[in-house]
Structures are given as structure tokens and as C-alpha cells.
Design a protein that fits this description.
mainly beta, 5-stranded mixed beta sheet, 5-stranded antiparallel beta sheet, about 5% helix
Length: about 600
């Protein structure tokens, strides 16, 4: 038996989490099994705990809280009021490396607390300690580290608690008998798993990794959903409570934190619920030719496709949601689709803040993808299935990345990084030659400015075969420099949002009281004066798709800029489809509904 007292620095984050939960002991996931200890623990030698008049633990107990953590995460997974604690020995199943117990008592003196501590017994091979730092007199915390085998905890006259570490319960989707339903199950961590299926499916069958008890999923509010167990591993859920959301999608949330297997094990921390999303049936086309794009069975389940130049492979993108904090990025899932092969998840969740050509991921050659955020620039080799870092920000975030773009013509990676983001908006320019790890660095290349609260302007870089468009700040507003192959430089006011053969479309800004204010649009051919163009009508968002600028209207119509008429006009799908929408990105794709 090993007993140690913990210092002030011990696992402060988990202790704060346990403290925060003391006053709210209802409604969390059932993860402790109030039953006799299992056969897995039966071989552990146990002894009768010391019984004294002073050890009236049960009488004074107010709550019992269980938590778990490792180096990257921590959570409270069970809270009980005293009246909820089982009368018989029970087992506790946990998933992470360390597990802890926090007991709160009423009217406990320091003398009584020390007496209780002396009665704590642990049986089995477990490294444990009583956490003393910042503990109120009425609380006792016991922490266990890296236990590889089951162990038993006894606290006064409470029933014996057998702890077992197991792999979490998981689940997958099963197609109905005789059918192969296209689906995506994306483990989207803090955004919640997403199970995407085509519209028209009236039910989903979930297959669990372990035999389960007969509990049923609920809604977010805790109301039971219509479901039945086919057998202990197969659960059929009827989709009779779906609600409409954007892009004609319908969804229903299945809350499953109350569901445990026969041993008391529960689903993993990020799997305790799933969004079932019924996606409209779409086909994808190239806007310039009307030709079909993609062609895989899961195409209608994606929000965006990024297709390789040879059209042999593509990435399906699932948009998960915006930043969980103060930030301007969006989180995505990236799934690689290759003809005749199963899909490969490149990233379950990637927080993207850098989107060249309004795509969060891009092909830099036929077998290599690149994507970036504040924290790094990454490439993925589809043949090797390997991800590696091209450029990584400093861990203290001094040199977070503002923008990154790859020049496929000259095989160069360009990065604009903050020189010290905590003190200045000044950016250094770094250029990596293909295959080299040391960059050519230009310090104090430019600065960035606020374009919205907590959001700096992305200083876009647009490499083209004949030259490169660079954004920099002059007199507090963005300008674009075009540098051609011969080194000639031309400058115009605005930031390049789209570059076409007709010229670069520049969005122009003026200084505001606290941040930039959009002021208009122009088209510019380097070497000539920029010409103002008609402002887009007020709408939800203005974006580029292929070689065109679009604005989405509040009534879900799309209008497109017509350069010849200098006018924004209603967009019509090239093949005459009635229900269709252009999708932003360099590929110039639109998706049309299949009725």
C-alpha cells in the first residue's frame, strides 16, 4: 500500500473541476455500477474495514464524486448525493489514466476528518494519495495513478468500491438488411459525433461494441426517444423527432450518457450523444461545364468538395461549427475519397483559420494536401497516409500564423507569422523552398489590423503562374502588391478576394473607430488603374466560387456579379436545375438537388 500527501501544485485543474461540481450532483452520466463486485475483481484479497463509533461515514456523507484525467483532458463522470450511494458493494469503471474520488461531509471537525483518513483502505496494486492541498475540512479526496489492475477502495462504513479501467464503449452505424446506406460517422469531439445519412431514411440502427443494458437514448431535455433493442448490441432508433436546419438538412440529437453496458462501462467522453443528420440528396457539378463532379456514394453528405487537378481523388468536407472561444476560425472534418476505396478520415476535427481560395484544405500536387491554422501548416501524403508539419508556431503563441499559401508553380511555401502576437500585430514573411526546413525570413514585412472583434484581417497571398498577389497594410488599410516573374511590382488599394483572367477583384476598406469598415469593390489588372464595380446587394455572405463572385440573399437566392454589365444578377444553375446552390472554393462547383 502506498500513501502520499499531495503538494500545492498537484493536479489543480482536476481539483477545481471536482470543487465546481460539489453543489450540483444531479443529471450526469451513469458510469458506476451499483452491483456486487465483478469476477474481474474477485481475486483481490479483501479485509473487513475497521468499524468504530467515530466512523459514521454514511451518516455524515453529503456527496460522492468521481473524476478521471490524463495529461490532456479531465472530467467528472459521476456525482451522487448521499441518498444515491448504493448500500451494497459496487464497481466504478473509468477510462483515463488517473481516477479520483471526492467525498463531502456535513459538520465534520478536523479531528473527525483525520480519523476518517486513517480508516481509508486500498486493496490491490494501486499507487494512491490523499490530496490535502486546498481541501476544506469537510472534504476528503483520494487520487489513484496508472492502476493497471482492478483495486478496491474502502472508506469508513461505505460499501466497498471496486475500480476497473476499461476501454470506452463505442458504436457504429449498421445499414438495414439487404441495403447499403451511404453514411458518415464523424467523431467530432467537443462538437459532438455526427452521423450523416441520406434524407428519406426513417430509422438508424446503432451497433455497440459491448452488450448493453436496456436503457434508451433521450433527447437533450431527457425525454425518451422512440427506440428498441433488437438484441443487447443492436439498437433501432426511429427518426420521428427531426428538426429542419440550414441547407434543407434535418437532424435529431440522441443523448446517450445514461447508457451503460452490462458491466457498468459507459461510452467515451466525446461519444455520449450523437447528432443524426438527414442530408438532402445532391449531385455535384462543375459550373463552367455542367459536368458531374465527385461521383462517390457519400457526395451528398458533404458540405464542400475539394477535387484534385487530375480529378482522381477528392476531399469531402464536413463543417462542424465556429470557434469554441474568441476566434474567427471554423472547425471541419476532412475525409479523403478515392475511387474504389473506403473513405479515410484525415482529420476528425481541424480548427482552420486560413483558407486560401476560400477552401480550408488544398491540393498542392496529385498526391499531397495542405491545410493550416494559427498553430501550424500541415501536409498529408495520400499514398503513405502520413501527416507532417511544414511550419509550426511557437508553443507560447508568439509566432502564430496569420496566413499561409503554397505556390505550386515555383514550389514555395509562404507563411506570414506574428513576430510577437501578445505585443504587436507585426508580421514576418517566411518562405520555404520545397524540401528545405529553414526559411528565408523577411522581418517586419507588414502588420495586420482588426477586421472584427478578436479577428485580425487575413493577409491573403495568391500565387498565380505569372506572379503573386500579396496583401500588406498601408496607412492602416489593406493594399495589394502584385509581383511578376521578372520582379516588377504594381500596387492597388484593397485585398484580393478573387483573381481571374479579367483581373483581381479587390475588396476595399476604410479605417473605422475600432476596426476596418468595408467600403466597396474594384477590379484591377496590374499595370492599369483599378476600376470600381457595383457593390453586392446586402445579403448573408459574399464569396468566390471558381471565377465568379456570389452573394447569398436572406431568401436563399444567389446573385452573381456580371462584369460585362457591371451588375449583380440572379444566378441560374448551368443545367437548369431548380434547386441548386453554388459552393465557395477554387473548383467552381455547385450542387443540385435530386428529387
Amino acid at each position: 500500500m502506498m500513501v502520499r500527501l499531495c503538494g500545492l501544485g498537484f493536479l489543480l485543474s482536476v481539483m477545481l473541476l471536482l470543487n465546481a461540481c460539489e453543489n450540483n450532483t444531479e443529471g450526469l452520466a451513469v458510469s458506476v455500477s451499483p452491483q456486487a463486485t465483478s469476477l474481474e475483481a474477485s481475486a483481490i484479497h479483501t479485509t473487513v474495514p475497521v468499524a468504530t463509533v467515530e466512523s459514521m461515514t454514511r451518516i455524515k456523507l453529503q456527496s460522492l464524486t468521481f473524476g478521471e484525467h490524463n495529461s490532456s483532458e479531465g472530467r467528472v463522470f459521476q456525482q451522487w448525493k448521499a441518498t444515491d450511494v448504493p448500500q451494497e458493494p459496487f464497481q466504478v469503471v473509468y477510462h483515463l489514466e488517473d481516477v479520483s474520488v471526492n467525498a463531502t461531509f456535513a459538520n465534520m471537525s478536523e479531528e473527525e476528518r483525520q480519523l476518517l483518513i486513517k480508516q481509508i483502505r486500498v486493496e490491490g496494486n494501486a499507487d494512491w494519495e490523499i490530496v490535502e492541498s486546498n481541501s476544506p475540512i469537510n472534504q476528503v479526496r483520494v487520487q489513484f495513478h496508472h492502476a493497471n489492475e482492478p483495486f478496491v477502495l474502502r472508506v469508513g462504513d461505505l460499501p466497498a468500491m471496486t475500480f476497473m479501467r476499461k476501454e470506452p464503449v463505442s458504436f457504429t452505424f449498421s445499414s438495414p438488411a439487404g441495403r447499403d446506406v451511404p453514411h458518415l460517422l464523424v467523431m467530432a469531439q467537443e462538437y459532438g459525433p455526427r452521423l450523416r445519412i441520406p434524407e428519406g431514411e426513417s430509422s438508424v440502427e446503432l451497433v455497440f461494441s459491448n452488450e448493453m443494458r436496456n436503457d434508451l437514448p433521450t433527447t437533450i431535455e431527457g425525454v425518451s426517444v422512440t427506440a428498441k433493442w433488437i438484441d443487447p448490441k443492436h439498437l433501432l432508433v426511429l427518426l420521428d423527432n427531426t428538426g429542419a436546419v440550414e441547407h434543407r438538412m434535418k437532424e435529431q440529437y440522441l443523448r446517450m450518457d445514461n447508457m451503460v453496458d452490462v458491466s457498468g462501462n459507459r461510452l467515451g467522453g466525446s461519444l455520449q450523444g450523437v447528432w443524426v443528420q438527414q442530408m438532402p440528396r445532391y449531385v455535384w457539378h462543375y459550373a463552367d461545364s455542367g459536368e458531374l463532379a465527385g461521383g462517390g456514394p457519400r457526395d451528398s453528405l458533404y458540405d464542400q468538395l475539394v477535387i484534385s487537378e487530375d480529378k482522381q481523388n477528392y476531399v469531402g468536407i464536413v463543417q462542424l461549427g465556429g470557434s469554441m472561444g474568441d476566434g474567427d476560425g471554423t472547425s471541419y472534418s476532412y475525409i479523403l475519397e478515392q475511387k474504389g476505396k473506403d473513405p479515410i478520415v484525415i482529420e476528425n476535427v481541424f480548427y482552420s483559420t486560413i483558407e486560401p481560395d476560400q477552401q480550408p484544405i488544398q491540393w498542392i500536387d496529385a498526391k499531397t494536401l495542405m491545410y493550416a491554422s494559427y498553430y501550424g501548416v500541415f501536409v498529408y501524403d495520400i499514398e503513405k497516409g502520413e501527416k507532417r508539419i511544414l511550419h509550426k508556431a511557437d508553443p507560447d503563441e508568439n509566432d502564430n500564423i496569420n496566413y499561409a499559401a503554397y505556390d505550386t508553380t515555383r514550389k514555395l511555401l509562404h507563411v506570414l507569422a506574428y513576430e510577437n502576437r501578445h505585443e504587436t500585430s507585426q508580421l514576418a514573411r517566411l518562405t520555404y523552398v520545397s524540401g528545405e526546413t529553414i526559411s528565408q525570413r523577411i522581418p517586419a514585412y507588414t502588420t495586420s489590423v482588426l477586421v472584427a472583434k478578436y479577428s485580425d484581417l487575413d493577409m491573403t497571398i495568391t500565387p498565380m503562374p505569372e506572379g503573386t498577389y500579396w496583401t500588406r497594410i498601408q496607412d492602416g488599410v489593406p493594399y495589394t502588391d502584385y509581383v511578376n516573374q521578372a520582379g516588377g511590382k504594381f500596387t492597388a488599394k484593397g485585398i484580393a478576394r478573387l483573381v481571374t483572367k479579367q483581373g483581381a477583384y479587390l475588396q476595399q476598406y476604410e479605417k473605422g473607430e475600432f476596426q476596418l469598415q468595408a467600403s466597396g469593390w474594384a477590379i484591377w489588372q496590374p499595370g492599369k488603374a483599378a476600376k470600381e464595380i457595383a457593390n453586392p446587394p446586402e445579403g448573408i455572405v459574399t464569396f468566390a466560387s471558381g471565377t465568379d463572385l456570389f452573394t447569398k440573399q436572406d431568401d436563399n437566392r444567389y446573385v452573381k456579379y456580371d462584369l460585362l454589365r457591371n451588375k449583380w444578377v440572379d444566378w441560374q444553375a448551368p443545367n437548369g436545375e431548380i434547386v441548386a446552390e453554388p459552393v465557395q472554393g477554387k473548383g467552381g462547383l455547385y450542387r443540385a438537388s435530386v428529387e
